[in-house]
Amino acid sequence: MPYSPRKAAQTIAFFAMQEGHAINVLKVIKLVYLADRESVRARGYPIQQEARVSMPYGPVNSVTLGWVNGSYRDNGDWSSVLNDRSNHRVGLCNAQMTTHDLDELSARELEILQDVWDEFGHMDRFDLADWTHDPNNVPEWENPNGSSLPIPLERMMTAVGLDKPIERAREQESLNQAHNTLASL
């Protein structure tokens, strides 16, 4: 499956709904990463199909962070769900939006997002950043010394305790390539 800006925006929208229609950027980027991590633990693959990196404030989903920061041209998939970043927050375009509007996310993905919110939603952005760059909590994060370092999927799989992480990561990559090839036909 290719990266879907709409699915990523809906993931952020879920967390914004929990926070009252807008959420701090640092906090939500950590929650998106933790949701992918939980999805890998529970299902063997992440919610978002994208590269992840270690940054000074912990791990992040790099493409989603780029979308939040306005680094990509939007065809409406993102902006139909979320407003532009403002005052370190990102929020819903439609305050009446509910989880029923999050049609890119499966029921299981919504459960994972809810589990992540239940465990981490009470934390503020700095506590969450501290938690995610503690190697006891997120051992796949490496200190990038002011830069960024890739977090390979197999490292995340190892950290969450999956068997055969190299083989599983290769399988996931192969599935993504096949999907991308079929989508381009």
Overview of the structural elements:
This protein is mainly alpha-helical and 185 residues long. It has one domain (5-183). The protein is 48% helix and 9% strand. It has seven helices and five strands. The strands form two sheets. It has a three-stranded antiparallel beta sheet with strand order 3-2-5. A two-stranded antiparallel sheet has the order 1-4. A hairpin with a 2-residue loop joins strand 2 (52-55) and strand 3. Helix 2 packs across helix 4 and helix 6 packs across helix 7 (165-183). The chain is globular and about 45 Å long. The mean pLDDT is 91.
For the secondary structure, the number of strands is 5
Class derived from helix and strand content: mainly alpha
**Beta-strand level of the residues, as a percent range?**
5-15%
Radius of gyration: 16 Å
In round numbers, the mean pLDDT is 91
Largest sheet: 3 strands, antiparallel
Q: Overall 3D geometry?
A: globular
Organism: Roseobacter cerasinus
Protein name: Antitoxin SocA-like Panacea domain-containing protein
Pfam families: SocA_Panacea (PF13274)
InterPro entries: SocA_Panacea (IPR025272)
